[in-house]
Amino acid sequence: MKRNFKSKVIMAMVVVFILSIAMSSQLLSLSLKTPKQISPKNNSHFTHYPRKLTLRWSAVRGAASYDVEIDCLHCRQSGQWDSQNGPAWKVASDIKATHYSFTFVGDNKGRWRVRASRGRLKSNWSRWWYFDFKTGGSSPGTTKRLPDLIVRDIRLIKNCKIQVTIANIGTAGVPSSYYDNPNAVAVQMYKGSQPWGGMILKMFDPAGKLKSPGGVATHVWFPLAANLNLSPGTHSLKVTVDIGGVLTELDETNNSLTRRVSCKKAVVGTIGTAIATLRHFSISNIRFSPASPASLNFNDKVKIWFDYKSSEDVHIWVRPMTKGSTSPNYAAHGSPLYPEGSGKGEGYFTITEGKVTVDQVRFQMMDKTQKKVLYEKSVPVKYTFPRMIAAISGQLATATISQPAKAPKQLMLDFTDAYLVFSNPAKSIQIAAQNMVLSYGSDWEKCQLKPYLYHIRQNFWKGFYWKVNTSKKEVYEVTGGTFCKLGGSEKKLNIKVDVVGGSSTTPPDRFMLRFSEARLVYEISSKTLQLATGNKVLSYCQDFQKCNLTASVYHFKENFWQGFYWKVDTTQKKVWKVSGTFCQPGGGGTLLNIGVRVFN
After folding, report:
1. In 242-301, where do the E strands start and end?
2. Would you tell me which of 239, 325, 529, 552 could form a disulfide with 541, CB atoms 3.0–4.6 Å apart?
3. Residue 21 three-state SS
4. Are residues 288 and 196 in the same domain?
5. Would residue 475 count as lying in a domain?
């Protein structure tokens, strides 16, 4: 009996020992140790050029990969590390080895750290190890100020849509001139070796985040383009930014990223029942007249016919393309709303001036709001403008080209119905004309001193501000005073004040300052736009898009306007509200009661 009891005790102790080993092993598997940095040693100094370094660290048991962060002092902002103003100077993930090589930027101080990774499990970061360069390889003691675009991430989101992230890890922003044609930075995607759509930076980064060093822009790749949907399975996706090499960067070798992604689309429904409607868009049976290749005179039309299928009502735009961008100086048809189902369509395009070769024709299906591209297709062609004619000598001579009109230096749109609206309790300001908002007042300061007394000023006004008395319905220009305090010298302005609600003891619901005259002033060469009344600027119109379409036609669009823009013709001296595509010819318009002045 005793022996039996003793055996059971020993057996129990063995079981407990085995379980403790298993549990400790399991606990170890749920954590990763922090890698130990090996080289370069902390506080290392380097003088070699180019500034190439290799970071090394110890292997961590159970790690599948490693992440490295490299930081730079003074690169993005003087006196600060890049990580204090956004992401570190360089972030590298999914490193399979225990070393990482890179080329540093400028004679600056840097630092680096590393962590281990296995799926979602991450170790703690190692401590920062510091280094610096003094090489004289690029303006000793200074950093070359250039942008550096990288494709930071490619991933699938809901419904296997592709999300792409591009970062500017350089020491300068991308200039605005590289966002749009003719010098636009292009972003191109490939699925395997097959091109999978492309766009210019203006479309990828409409908010202009990459115009600042350290900026990061994320974009969902043509989410409604049916021909760019991924099928279920594993795919290799490659994205290259600045594929044409138009932008000078700190590093010209880091513009591409390739990722393998797995698309898993669940089939929802029951047998014999269709739960979801299959979306289908296509354009086929395309015909051109004259057939390609052909040479044409200016304003000669290339006519197009096509068949379409669509799962919803769509607009179909056909546009000539030259070297990946819309052809210069083109004119083309507008688009009716084509009904859901299948049908036939037609259109045309031409070139109005300049020597142009159209090498592709692009078809785009857009939803009825004209905000989403549902389908895109390009057809290779060759149409040359202008047509070459034979001279008597037998040599080829160019057909006579009329000289294009010279663009004016400045144009001015005159309003007689402009007004500023101040609304309580939000204390918001809007400036409008022709029943359309021209500014949302983000560049205005506001202060309420009494229920009926307000100070307002545009941020760039110096030495004065406006005082509005809603009880007396008067506006004064105040000088020699302090904003948001009583006092100073006042001059009454000829501005009518309308007040809604309120009293001497209760703030109004809103008040309006009605200007007897106001104007939008546009400098053609610099593309600067200002809204003014008298000699006072009301807005610098930073939330306006501007397009110099031709030497006499200009488009303007406030970012919050939906489905329309303004078209200004300086030859006819008229302004239309247009529902077409911004910065492209065509589209129906309504003539507006706005005066146009032109200054050469």
Report:
1. 256-263, 281-289, 294-295
2. 529
3. helix
4. no
5. yes
Work out the widest C-alpha separation in the chain, in whole angstroms: 128
Distance CA 111, CA 89 (A): 10
Task: Tell whether 212 is covered by a domain.
Answer: yes
* Burial group, residue 543, by CB count within 10 angstroms (0-12, 13-18, 19+): middle
Distances in Å between the Cα of 345 and the Cα atoms of 228, 287, 317, 365, 374 are: 23, 11, 10, 12, 17
Residues 6 or more apart from 454 whose CB is under 8 A from it?
422, 446, 447, 448, 467, 468, 470, 511
Total domain count, the chain: 5
pLDDT tens-digit map of 546-559: 898 888 899 999 88
Q: Which of 482, 510, 538 is the last residue of a domain?
A: 510
> Could you say which of 454, 485, 510 is where a domain stops?
510
Report yes or no on 393 lying in a domain. Answer: yes
Average pLDDT over residues 407-416: 89
Tell me if the bond preceding 182 is cis, omega within 30° of 0. yes
292 shares its domain with 246: no
Say if residue 522 is in the same domain as residue 506.
no
- The answer to whether the CB of 95 falls within 8 A of the CB of 112 is no
Neighbours of 252 (CB within 10 A): 11
For residues 464 and 433, membership in a common domain is answered with: yes
User: What is the DSSP annotation of 460-527?
Assistant: T--SEEEEEETTTTEEEEEESS-TTSS-SEEEE---EEEEES--SSS--SEEEEE-S-EEEEEETTTT
Whether 154 and 223 share a structural domain = yes
| Amino acid sitting at position 540 | Y
Residue at 487 is within a domain: yes
Q: What CA–CA distance (Å, rounded) separates 556 from 547? A: 7
Q: What is the pLDDT of residues 250-289, one digit of tens each?
A: 877 788 888 888 888 654 433 333 333 346 788 988 999 8
Using CA atoms, how far apart are residues 22 and 165, in angstroms rounded to an integer?
42
Q: Cα Rg for the chain, rounded, in angstroms?
A: 32
pLDDT higher than threshold 50 for residue 403: no
Give the torsion sign (CA, 422, 424, 427, 429): negative
Output the six-digit token pair for 546.
């501007």
CA dihedral 5, 7, 8, 9 (to 10 degrees): 90
Length of the chain counted residue by residue: 600
Which tokens is 369 given?
A: 């709001």
Per-residue model confidence as pLDDT tens digits over 503-520: 878 888 889 999 989 999
CATH number at residue 330: 2.60.40.2550
- Say whether both 336 and 430 belong to one domain: no
Look up the domain containing 331 and give its range: 281-398
